[in-house]
Fold this sequence. Notes:
The chain contains 1 helix and 17 strands. The strands form 3 sheets. The protein has a 6-stranded parallel sheet, with no helix packed on it. It has a 6-stranded parallel sheet with strand order 2-5-8-11-14-17, with no helix packed on it. The longest helix is centred in the first third of the chain and has 5 residues. The chain starts with 18 loop residues before the first helix and ends with a strand.
Amino acid sequence: SPTGDDLQVGSRTEPWRTLNRASRFPFSTGDALLLERNGTWVDDPLVIIKARGLLLGAYGNETLPRPLIQLGRSVTEWTACASLMDVDQLTVQSLHVSGCADGLVLRAPTGTNATNVAVIDTFFRDIRTPFLSYNPANPGWARSIWLAGGHFKNLTVRNNFAARIDVFFSSSANVVGMALTANTVQQ
């Protein structure tokens, strides 16, 4: 929660304040990292080294806006709003990411499949190439969702929204069994 305290235990009643603090937590299968609805985290990217069996989503009054991870659009840096490594049995849902060069970066575990990974009901906005990195002859386009390597099996990308982005979905991974459905992308 933006009103939390990083010295607390990291629960709904005693939430952390920063994504940096959440990034240092050793998540286990079955854990959830829930961000408070109507909360905003500015220039505080999320990096989870081992995201197996994790739910990354929102909590609170569902009539309030999704939690926002907002990065100031860099002139030169390729920064992701959320980087989740060593993913398996992962669900990302009901978030709002904006202003980064990569919205959501997912990397499979080395030597095995990332299975049953889902990105659902998330809003991607202003995912753009850093200003000084733009090169018309061979641009590296910014990606809302990027599978950054490895092998994925049973991937679902459903009911997401994107506006003012370079690329909605990109993969540097081997993917078997993908459902890319009911997403709305504008501009």
